Amino acid sequence: MPYGLYIAAEGAHAQDRRLTVLANNLANVDTVGFKRQLAICQARYTEPVSRGLESTGSGRWPDLSGGVVVSMTKTDFSSGPLKETRNPTDFAIRGEGFFTVQKENEVFLTRAGNFQLNGKGQLVTQFGSDQYLVLNDAGQPIVLDGSRPWRVNPQGVVEQQGLVQNIAVVRPASKDSLLPVGENLFRATSQPEPIPLAQRQVAQGYLEMSSVQPTLAMVELLEASRLLEANLAMVQTQDQMLANLFSRVLRSA
Question: How far is residue 153's CA from residue 84's CA, in Å, rounded to a whole number?
Answer without folding.
Answer: 16
